[in-house]
Amino acid sequence: MRIESLKTSPDRAGRYWLTFEGGERLGLYRQTVEDFGLYAGKELTEEEDAALRTAAGQMSAKMRAVRIVSASSVSRKDLEQRLVRKGEDPGQAKEAVQWMEDLHLISDRDTAEQVVRSCIAKGYGLSRAKQALYEKRIPKEYWEEALADYPDQSEKIEAFLRTRLDGESDQKDVKRAVDALIRRGHSYGAIRRVLNELSFDTEDRIEDF
């Protein structure tokens, strides 16, 4: 297999594009180019070609993993599945995730804590935080620790209700506000307690909820 050309400058993703005789293109990162001593006109044996493609796939998975983790909080399982969905080889995706963990660049425990902190900051209730942990594919062994000090959300509930309701609000207004809070993960009991404590009268409007 003969290398027809090799770009001397990377694209925006940091890849150097190699073109084989016949037109096939392969995106490589600098380390792979240097490891294999690649240059235009070089002839590769079948073994070298196979090794190059394997190395290219491994590096692609690692670099994509770094970009994903840099952009958002993810669990090991979530990262692995995202890599596969992006077209990475499943085996190389698994290796990339392990590589990230070995470098302490990803941790399910840390991700669980980040997810919970985000939910608290957004004023979500406990059940919404649990849903977020599930959606992030965080192993349940980390849930209890991350949720252990979840604060009371009464103030957040009250602030939300005060933006939606006043003394002129009717039963439909109250129900819409309650439904919105439930979607945000707050329990019906907590919502009702706050409603009953508000200065405007809502008791006759929540009897059926």
List strands and helices in order, with pairings.
Layout (H helix, E strand, L loop, with lengths): L2 E4 L8 E6 L4 E5 H6 L10 H26 L4 H10 L4 H13 L5 H14 L4 H10 L7 H5 L6 H11 L6 H13 L4 H10 L12
Antiparallel strand pairs: 1-2, 2-3
Please give a structural write-up.
Strand 2 (15-20) and strand 3 form a beta hairpin. This protein is mostly helical and 209 residues long. The model is unreliable at 201-205 (pLDDT under 50). Helices cover 56% and strands 7% of the residues. Helix 2 (46-71) crosses helix 3 (76-85), helix 2 (46-71) crosses helix 4 (90-102) and helix 8 packs across helix 10 (188-197). A three-stranded antiparallel β-sheet has the order 1-2-3. It contains ten helices and three strands; from the N terminus they run βββαααααααααα.
